[in-house]
Fold:
Amino acid sequence: MDTRMQDPLLGAPGSAYQTFPQQAARPLDREYIRTLQNKRLFLAAFAAVLGNFSFGYALVYTSPVIPALETSNIPALKITHKEASWFGSVFTLGAAAGGLSAMFLNDRLGRKLSIMVSAVPSAVGYAFMAGAQGLWMLLLGRLLTGYAGGVTAASIPVYISEISHPGVRGTLGSCPQIMAVLGSLILYALGLKLPWRWLAVAGEVPVLTMIILLCFMPDSPRFLISKGKEDKALQVLRWLRGPDTDFHREFEQMRESVWHQSKRISCAEIRDPFIYKPILIAVLMRFLQQLSGVTPTLVYLQTIFQSTSVILKPEYDAAIVGGVRLVSVLIAAFSMDKAGRKILLYLSAGIMLASNLTLGLYIHYTPKPSHNSTLAVMNGTTVSPESLTAEPSHYVTLIPLVATMLFIMGYAMGWGPITWLLMSEILPLKARGVASGLCVLVSWLTAFALTTVFLPVVQAFGLEVPFLFFAVICAGNLIFTGCCVPETKGRSLEQIETFFRTGRRSIMRNHV
Structure:
């Protein structure tokens, strides 16, 4: 590949200027990182990412619930094909609204308080779903939990990035995705045993645990500096790094960076490449992440398996996929700071491309299955679930399960966690609160559109069409990674900001 394809869309580097003298800084940085005490940092990160656990749990809540509601004995709760589509997609509409709110909450309340505020609509939403007496209560519950998820999706990555140091930021930066995946897996597992109402009750537990733990955790030191609370920021950094470390030097770097960007972003500054290029990269990554098809796949997972007549029961297939997803994101977490971000993005997009293409071709070239599902289509006509039976008898029907497992594995190894991490790493500090909310807004509006049209497209054109479309998008992800995405492995947030400000690729080539 042409080496120019590995460079981001930035101007050409200049001459000998370097903001950070690398020969002198590298040994000092390594020595400093080795002395840090990370226990309190890990505790603060864990308290925050419980919000992502709840987000992942709520996102896939529909997977076991839609089949149960389709056969419900309560007329007010029995849902139609169209209502199932709205039940699955309204969560993403709430998440988009949450991302929009986070634009203002992040910069006014701070990262930690924004996360805590999200617990209120989340708890109320689960209560509505647990006690639902009609479809409107289910939809409102999904909307509220989606809103909470949108706020946490914009706030938690930024919070973790700003309290972390370069030595662990890659690993901790993948924790939001790990916990979201774990939340989904727990939902799939509980769905094997619990009725759908009790699934909603169980969703209250991580929400309440999160808000209790966050009461004892500090806010981001960068946010405190931006609000003029330097003494408190220094105390927070001392608490996070340990009293016997050289945290004062890190504090001075933070203060210099914050002071340099202390004013609010203006319309004129948006034309500055230092501002618009990282925002554009982050927004496009979130857009392409959703277009790869992960949200409709997760939301309608059991329904998809029913329509493809996988040899195993759909609820067990969903749990298996959830387990594979968790293992994959753990692999990404531990390799992110060793292999780097871009190589994992390449690998991730390649696996997703092959998986979507395989699934689409399999569905296209195999006879339409007869199975109890709202997706069952025969000769272009939707058939009522009551009139269909399905007894998959050949192991070739494992192909949809294997392809879906590989798709989820590929996503969880790269385009899942790294997209969140890069959003928190490359966005300029003065625009980080607003820009992170914009990223979440774009992401979930895209997800809403996909989950809303997914079932109607399948009914009209067949299940293979969405997956072939997702395969084309994954091919575009490979090109986008090569042309636009910078490698941030081992760089401090201040160095990444300097890179976009000056265009000095040498800053990014030398790793700590």
In short: Residues 432-461 form the longest helix (30 residues). The radius of gyration is 23 Å. The CA atoms of residues 405 and 439 lie 27 Å apart.
